[in-house]
């Protein structure tokens, strides 16, 4: 099975195999301001805090090779070193070039879990430095530093069967055969600012998770804007669920691995009500806490969908 995994995700190091034949292609919204971002740049522009206090004695400089050392300090937040309301340029990420590459920015981690029963899951983890939450009844809500979204393709006996699209607190699963594709590569449409992943272009209401209302209050917009090919600037890993261990497919040893074990968040902690930057609307904050990373995305899920109490619906018809 290892040979099949290599062909799915790491084939660019095997000269006679097309490495990107089934990997997703992402269309970012045409008005997007916050593009995919470099993982190391996020560490360079943040500092580890617990309860809004910088951790004394934390590794310095913080790198992808020592990030997991922060786990011993409790609930850690990688907090911006500067006030984000000043719009520091690093929050904007890197706009993909004409080929779809985020130059000088590793903005994706591709993680493969071979279940050993014929099923292989390939996770495409997308990183952004900032999430713009959107406007609800004239109020800006749900912004946060750091943003992890993902697609997952399930292969059954080497054949791609389903594609998972992460969206806010949950997401959607579609049969691979019915999703839009460029050749064999599924097309993904990223929501404006929120980067939630959708299978079609249109307005997507997410006021109630998994129930797309017409003319809803909280809406993502998608279109075929800037094309991003995440595989062009990515790290590639395997995941062994029995030992919860990650390993790089890069045999040169140049790909960092330890950062995948970091269990803290990739952004600021939700600002308290006393912070002048914070505002709430019907209990919802303008600035929420940052997200956890790939390690917390149920990499060994039984179903195509994560187990979060929501029914896993495998859709055979494209829709919102």
Automatic annotation (TrEMBL):
Pfam families, per the entry: Vps62
Database matches in InterPro entries: Vps62
Region (Disordered): 282-301
PANTHER family per UniProt: DUF946 FAMILY PROTEIN, VACUOLAR PROTEIN SORTING-ASSOCIATED PROTEIN 62
The protein's name in its UniProt record: Vacuolar protein sorting-associated protein 62
Gene source species: Glonium stellatum
Taxon lineage: Eukaryota, Fungi, Dikarya, Ascomycota, Pezizomycotina
